[in-house]
Amino acid sequence: MRRSFKFLLRPTRKQVAALTACLADHQQLYNAALEHRRTAYRKAGVTVRYGEQSAELKHIRADDPGGQGRWSFSSQQATLRRLDKAFAAFFARVKAGRAPGFPRFKGKGWFDTVEWPKDGDGCRWDSQPGHPAATYVRLQGIGQVRVHQHRRVLGTVKTISVKREGRRWYVILSCDDVPAQPLPATGVAVGIDMGVAWLVTTSDGEHVANQRHLAACADRLAAAQRDLSRKQRGSNRRRKAVARVAALHAKVRRQRLDGAHKAALALVGVYDVIVHEALQVANMTSRAAPKPDGEGGWLPNGAAAKSGLNKSILDAGWGVFLTILSHKAGSAGRELIAVNPADTSRTCSRCGHCVAENRVTQAGFRCWACGHTAHADANAAVNILRAGLALRDAARAA
Hints:
16 strands
């Protein structure tokens, strides 16, 4: 199986300058290649392909030895493939009848990753294996950069990427042939209900707290954004203010990822079968639809309340948690089943009676037919587990 490993880099000041220049030159190459395609089609009706642009790299590097010529040829090819994939996705969306979204030019803050497609071609992971206390990655034009390797790398390193996140730099290794690490069978199945009050509620009645990292950081983030709004565009003070806001958002993201990893690991370690809701988070967090009043005005549509709910859902990080749970379950040999969440929160897990009135409050459930009472999320988790096991049995019978 393929797996990625992400480590923090510890570059020197000189190496930070070189990494920044590398990103800037690859950004320039991407934008120039995009302009080449746009101009060729607009003026001559000619479609430029990746192969043609890759063939021109030799001349570009020769004409600019102190700029584009400094970097790995393979990494520049990867940047051109990135543009080619953007065009392929654009045409796929056009063909499918979705909003096209033509490829855009990349600004300074929108190009933060450079990829080397092959370990040993312009880059080398663990380039000083004999070093007693540190790990290094060698990057062409940058040198030997120290890596904070906090865990062992498994499998065979195929591609190496460097990513800038705020003021931090990371190296990302994509590895093939990573061995699975199956856990001992427990013979236990569980259904999980995702929520805002609790991140996860299991069918066993256990809760995993929603830490609300963004809400906890809201005051500091608001102060940093107010400070940013007072700075003049293009000034050094504004760049520093932007960096402070980015650092706060990055901290929230790291905290959310850490919590999701811990919650997923706890579930995978105990249960053989995990059933969850097939949530469409993007649809659930869309804006409230406007309501015209038929006279040129608009009726109240609950946009403010919907905005607050959307923020709470995104702060909980359902999508991140389910993605991490899927990866950990696959590596541990656990079975993950997604079910349609419709009516799971209003159906009685004891008698099956389904009406909206069964959900008394956010946390309270009381069946109008049989009088069964339970925590609403735990009741929904039992229904989710039952639906998942029914799907599994139906698939095996087929």
